[in-house]
Amino acid sequence: MESRAKAAGHAMHQQLVVLPLGLLATAVAFDAIGFVTHDGRLAFASYLMIVVAVVTGLAASAFGLIDYLAIPRGTRAKRVALLHGSGNLVMLLLFTGSSLLRAGSPDYMPRPTSFVLALVALVIAAGTGWLGGELVGRLGIGVDDDAGLDAPARLTTGISVPRGPR
Asked: Transmembrane stretches, by residue range (predicted)?
């Protein structure tokens, strides 16, 4: 099922998820290193990464929702996509909570509660990332209808809304 929101011929959602996921994983790593080294600069960098990741994650989710709405009802893909999107919403909320808890602390150093929230959120992100791979790799969501080893390049762009019953 071809993506309904594209830029330069590729699904917007698939392009946008890379940045927030990379930032969130790096933020947790910076926090872990910051705990060990007591380096407030790493904690502050982690805080900024989480903020940027939540904002870009919300942008990615908007395009994911566009594709979700185009998936036919009653399919396994619709159920997997609902779990994928819901899990990502929970993950973003947990990271948001983690950043809010640390906002008032010196050097934005995470307290144990905010660090645990971020760790749980990262585990959820790993699971929802796997579900995203299932959607694309096995269920063909966001894959061009004419995809193949010798498919021609198409630099289409825009958002299309399906007409009629699916």
From this structure: 45-69, 81-101, 113-132
Note the Cα 40 to chain centre separation in Å: 27
**CA neighbor of 79 nearest in space, from 135, 145, 12:** 135
Rounded to whole angstroms, how far apart are CA atoms 162 and 166?
8
Rounded to the nearest 5 percent, the helix, strand and coil shares of the chain are 70, 5, 30
3-state secondary structure of 145: coil
What are 7's strand-pairing partners? 10
- Give the HSE-up count for residue 3: Cα atoms under 13 Å, Cβ half-sphere: 24
Residue stretches of the chain with pLDDT short of 70: 156-166
pTM (predicted TM-score): 0.86
In single-letter form, the type of residue at position 114 comes to S
How many other CB atoms are found less than 10 A from the CB of residue 22? 13
CA distance 17 to 62: 11
